[in-house]
Amino acid sequence: MTAPSRHSDQKPLRRDMLVAACCGAVVVGMVGAAYAAVPFYNWFCKTTGFGGTTQVAEKAPEHIFGRTLTIRFDSNVTPGLPWKFLPEQNEIQVRVGEVATVHYKVVNEAAREIAAQASYNVSPPTVGAYFDKINCFCFTEQRLKAGETREMTVVFYVDPSILKDSDQDDLNTITLSYTFYRLRNPERPVAETPDATKSKL
Fold first, then answer.
1. pTM exceeds 0.85, yes or no
2. Which residue in 26, 157, 175, 190 has a CA-CA distance of 20 to 30 Å to 58?
3. How many helices and strands (H and E) does the chain possess?
4. What is the DSSP string of 63-118?
5. Residue 66 burial (CB < 10 Å; 0-12/13-18/19+)?
6. How far is residue 46's CA from residue 56's CA, in Å, rounded to a whole number?
């Protein structure tokens, strides 16, 4: 009389274990997908210019065309970063395919060294695929000592392939925007004093 009840008790237990295993697999898959999403999204933006992400180029185009665009420059710092950050020019005129060099000025107004890095994009966002940087301060972190002033350079051009995009026929202005955000200062090793070195010998 007892054997059938034991058999019937095992069925819900197996079903519960199967459901728990499936849920665990889903959770693990979602965590893995979350970690993979960030580098994939960054790669996608850099490749397609999605969201106004600019491109990186190694050399200038072979030809300069007659179409002229106005490039405006925007500068920002995130709250808590005591830096003054401004472009030396608010806007310039460039021809498609022409390499332009512009400068920004940044001042660390704090009483200690601070490290920061700039995020960037262009607007309208659809132009990101055609805005190429050869050199930019945004590629690396910037570390400024207390009160230090630094001039930073951006070298860029608008890719001639934009002329083949009919959606950009009415485009006449591009805004290049930067926002500096603070980086956590890594701990630096303390240099040994001569006395400390002698004490070890």
1. no
2. 175
3. 2, 10
4. ---S-EEEEEEEEEE-TT--EEEEES-SEEEEETT--EEEEEEEEE-SSS-EEEEE
5. exposed
6. 8
